[in-house]
Amino acid sequence: MSITDSTRARASTSDQATPSLSHRRRQRRRAPGEAVAGYLFLSPWLAGLLFLTIGPMVASLYLSFTDYDLLTAPRWVGFDNFAQLFSDPRWIASVGVTLTYVLFSVPGVLIVSLAVALALNKGFRLLSAYRAAYYLPSLLGSSVAIAILWRQVFGDQGAVNAVLDRIGIHMGSWIGSPDTALYTLIVLNIWTFGATMIIFLAGLRQIPTEYYQAAAVDGAGKIRQFRSITLPMLTPLIFFNILLTTVNAFQAFTPAYVISEGTGGPANSTLFYTLYLYEQGFTRLEMGYASAMAWVLVVALGIGTALLFASARYWVFYGDER
Amino acid sequence: MSRATYTPATRTPPRAPRLRFGRTPVRSPLGRAVVRHAMLLTVIAIMLYPLFWMVGASFRPNNEVFTTLGIWPSNFTLDNYTEGWTSGQFSFSRYFLNSLVITGLSVVGNVVACMLAAYAFARLDFPFKRVLFAIMLGTLLLPYHVTLVPQYIMFSELQWINTILPLVIPKFLATDAFFIFLMVQFIRVLPREMDDAARIDGCGYWGIFRRIIVPLSLPAMGTVAMFTFIFTWNDFLGPLLYLSRPDMWTVAQGLNNFVDATGQSAFGPLLAMATLSIAPIVGFFLVTQRLLVEGIATSGLK
Amino acid sequence: MTRYIGRRRFLAGASITAAAVLVTAGCGGTSATGETGDGQDTHDGTGEVQGDIVFAWWGGGARNEVTNAVADLFEEANPDVSVSRESADWGDYWDRLNVQASGGNMPCVTQTQARQLNDFASRNLLLPLDPMVESGAIDVSTIPDDVLDSGRGPDGELYMVPYGAAYDALMVNQTLAEETGAGVPPDGYDWEYFFDWLAEAQDDLPDDVAAANVGGGRPNYLIAYVQAHGEEMFADGQIGFPRELLVDFWTEWEELRESGVTNTADQWAEEPSASEQSYVAQGAVMADVQPGNYLTPAQDTMDGQDTGQQLVTVPLPSGPAGSGNVLITSGFSIPASCDNVSTAAAFVDFWINDDEGAEVFSSSNGAVTNADHLQQQIDNPELPELKRHELEVYEQIVGMSPPVIIYPPGYQATFEAAFTRAYEEIAFGRKSIEQAVDDFFAEANAGLG
């Protein structure tokens, strides 16, 4: 993962004075007792890793091959759950809904956040106030309160329709129609672009101004400068933001749950993968089936992530691998 | 970006824009700043309008909630707040108390556990360190779905359902790797000379951690605390799974139940409670926004 | 200067993670399973009445008040007993009960309803109550046999003692219906009359009021339609009625929706889920199917709008096979995991037979099933008019000897949910009626049983 390290950048003097971490390790021998101390400090996290992550993952893999309802012992069913998935119309619907959501909201978030970051990257006064105002929705986007607000804003008699009414367009409920309900959730996700924007902003501010000066001397215009300096320098962050926004989008739950009252309706149009997994696992107590769903998602996301990493070699520019 | 912003500077170095391209409507740097601010403000206004509308509507009589698009209530009333607060089987004081307890414990647990792990990763050397660090980064990308069901089964076997333990204990075990990562980034750049000095003074690893690292890491701990607060406060799926008794509900659950029970008829009280539910987040954000924003820039946390 | 963690180093880390996961996963799994009561025990319910029991029910404000009052009366009558109480709204109640069942700690006195009963009975979570009836621990002699039988599982055993009988009714905005000249449907009206009545009324209604809420997605209408046509809802744990019947049912509703007699599908999708806040209670539609015992709260909502409109309930339409109305009984079950069965049995007995308790509760959750208490309440001159109407419609429906439906396990989670969704697919133009019927039959039959 390529992650900006602005703290490190700020401390670049001391960084230059001392060799990098891995370099130093080779020089220094491990002190007596350091290994024990290391594991002691690490022990809460290790316990969590073992009991709350790896253990459950293994259990989930096992359960995905069973029929299990919490009440009676799991019954081994082989690949039945997986076979059933691919003929389950609701599962197929949930995959479609989730992919649509990801395919629209990830580019949406990236484009809007990059555009606003570019506009803000001028070093003028009030920058921090702007930044804060744009960032605020990111903190609220996953709350029940905002989901409720969204229901109102896009409802039959909501603010959006009230505005449209005044200019003579009459729409039904955006939330109540399967053709539009998902798009209100996509808008909600794009509304929370602030966090991504701040990462871009941090990256923009670290591009050395000499590059632009040199380009300007060579006669490169603003568009040209954007394409040949800004964009390449930002590719590690674009890569990082694609990764994060996508992973987050796959995990969205609260807005869809609140807006559809847990049904994923109308007509399965907001049936997020997570929502369907919740329904199978915790409303119907089909825990084996839900585990199979989870593992299909893990494998699919793993393949997607691997492809993204593989593609990175062709378009991501790494400053330290020149 | 509009044409106005970049066209004039097409062939000029950034600091000395020459204004010979007279076709563009805005010529002066001041004029361009005005246009830019106007655009930025318009976008902010559209983005924040729903929030302001919600706050305004919460002070409006219930029957005016739907009919008004403006923000300032003309007939100011607090009825929605008094009515909403006591609606339902338990009042919102109960939900706020529950949320506060869970959030408070989560913040403490997460800061302590992440700090411990981050110190080990940033400063100590031990076998398999790189493997473990890579695993930690890997868990950042792991969808939580895969642990959801088995964790639930495990907590149910432990008879932890309808206690706050399933929500709080994972925080004490630093399960959110983002926060460890953020702190590792921070501790790595703290000067090592102080560690060495403390070691010469006879401090062990714990002493260095407690006397040097912790005091120097307070800003990072503050960032982690704030994010943990906000995430836990907003969390809905966790309480939905583990807290089924209405007297244990968090604010998020109380709010969701409110909307199920009343629908559109009590929209005023509903919006009032929704406003209250995000008030702590907005409040903390206003106080600590510098810390938060820099925290994101540092780690990519969102 | 900007620095990044090298891509290569990260890739190496990611692949190690993946390898670690695969290796651990390859070691085979352990599972966390729980053995709960296997339900083979029986208990005749006699014994000492003392100690603690947990009592759980669903309901909102007013219901909670009267329920608590009855539990207080029981504690007064049995000073050695303390009753701890848990209540929740309808939807949350069942989710919570699932959780409690999985942990083997269902409340000793658990309120159940015929529609969900077999989700629990079929997993051997409930004690059969017949031995307690035989031993005299629970006296059910005042409950009519037809009503008592609604508490039986597919194996014929009694798993729930019904204390309140609700029914679905057609809730009509009487004021609007009379203004249009269509009036309230007469006794014994049938489905044909009902659909024509709606269409006729629509012509004279105000523009923003529809004659009916979209009805094709309401299982309650379907049940009445199926019964009235002499078919069975369920047979051998599967759907018991022919698919053509459902095609007819949905075709009728689609014609009404397309011709604007009902409101639109997206309005229907936005309707609040609580009955007292439904569109008919808000005056947004003229008629809809609603639980008969919601007449009073719905009228309260109506009164809150100051339109002066009056709501009334009538039985659902009849058909070639007679009345389509069925009773939905709520009652009490005792779980196999209960450690104080004798006290739980005493509580249930008290609830069914105590005069004062029945008066306090006053049929808050459907008409009281104890025939003596029912008569007392109807004879009580202080009974509010709407409540009297509710009880009278109940008597009217009981007089039609309604059939008892045994709902297979998974009814609510599978059948109802799939039914509503299948109709949504039609109403939003996603599927043809034929296609939706086929898909619904496949989905529901796979999930039932």
From TrEMBL, chain A:
GO cellular component, one term: plasma membrane
Sequence segments annotated as region (Disordered): 1-29
Places the protein is found: Cell membrane
BP-aspect Gene Ontology terms: transmembrane transport
SUPFAM superfamilies linked: MalF N-terminal region-like, MetI-like
Comp. bias (Polar residues): 1-21
Record-annotated ABC transmembrane type-1 domain positions: 95-308
Pfam families linked to this entry: BPD_transp_1
Membrane topology of this protein: Multi-pass membrane protein
Protein name listed in UniProt: Sugar ABC transporter permease
Species name: Phytoactinopolyspora halotolerans
Lineage summary: Bacteria, Bacillati, Actinomycetota, Actinomycetes, Jiangellales
From TrEMBL, chain B:
Membrane topology: Multi-pass membrane protein
TM stretches of this protein: 33-55, 95-119, 131-153, 173-191, 212-233, 266-287
GO cellular component terms listed in the entry, alphabetical order: plasma membrane
Protein's name in the database: Carbohydrate ABC transporter permease
Entries under Pfam families matching the protein: BPD_transp_1
Lineage: Bacteria, Bacillati, Actinomycetota, Actinomycetes, Jiangellales
PROSITE patterns registered for this protein in UniProt: ABC_TM1
InterPro entries tied to this protein: MetI-like (IPR000515), MetI-like_sf (IPR035906)
Parts forming coiled coils: none
Statement: the UniProt record of this protein carries the keyword Secreted: no
Automatic annotation (TrEMBL), chain C:
Classification via InterPro entries: Bact_solute-bd_prot1 (IPR050490), SBP (IPR006059), TAT_signal (IPR006311)
Keywords attached to this entry: Signal
Segments forming a coiled coil: none
Pfam families: SBP_bac_8 (PF13416)
Protein origin, superkingdom: Bacteria
Signal peptide boundaries: 1-25
Stated name of the protein: Carbohydrate ABC transporter substrate-binding protein
The organism of origin for this protein: Phytoactinopolyspora halotolerans
